[in-house]
């Protein structure tokens, strides 16, 4: 089910409020034409002009589900798949840990997962028609690569793919999702710079994911660094 509103502060905040009141069920997607208080990971603001995708959905956790944090990978592979439907000849389309989607190194999307009890609210922002000019990273949009896609049409594709990957995550565990993520990520050996939650920086070469989805970096001294949280940029 997809609900659309003309404007709201944040689709994630709206669904968190509904989830807290027990007034939302799994499978609902809320899309806004425009957000006035969009949020990204690590407290970043998310610029939200009309024409891009701003949507959130809810997953109700079950006792047998994999770790809730790994829903980021479910969403990432579903989003990458949906972009390929609408931009089939995309060059340089790649996932970056944990759930960013890039085209030729430029950021195309962002995600935010937030939990309320046994519910996880997943928000996705995708640059369809516009992309911001940021000082700290390159950005892009589907329109910049020749794809004119309406937000409602894209969300229909995404919602179908997310439901399918969510079912695999529940039925088969993280392994097939992790495998698809690795197939769609930047190559092993890609230089990455990680900013850890305590402010430290680590630079190394992408060495894959562990079984739980943590990022593996091969450092200059040959040791391996396992990263469970933080921000990653292409070095």
Describe this structure in words.
With 235 residues, the protein is α+β, with helices and mostly antiparallel strands. It is 25% helix and 31% strand. The chain has four helices and 13 strands. It has helices at 11-20, 71-86, 151-172, 175-184, and strands at residues 2-8, 29-35, 53-60, 93-96, 100-103, 106-107, 109-116, 119-126, 191-195, 201-209, 215-218, 224-227, 231-234. The strands form three sheets. Strands 1-2-3-8-7 form a five-stranded mixed β-sheet, with helices on both faces. A five-stranded antiparallel β-sheet has the order 12-11-10-9-13, with no helix packed on it. α2 (71-86) crosses α4 (175-184). The chain is globular and about 50 Å long.
> First CA to last CA: what distance?
40 Å
Q: What is the gyration radius calculated from CA atoms?
A: 17 Å
Helix content: 10-25%
Structural class: alpha+beta
Strand order of the largest sheet: 1-2-3-8-7
SSE ordering:
EHEEHEEEEEHHEEEEE
Compute the number of helices: 4
General shape: globular
Portion of residues in beta strands equals: 25-35%
User: Which residues form runs of ≥5 with pLDDT under 50?
Assistant: none
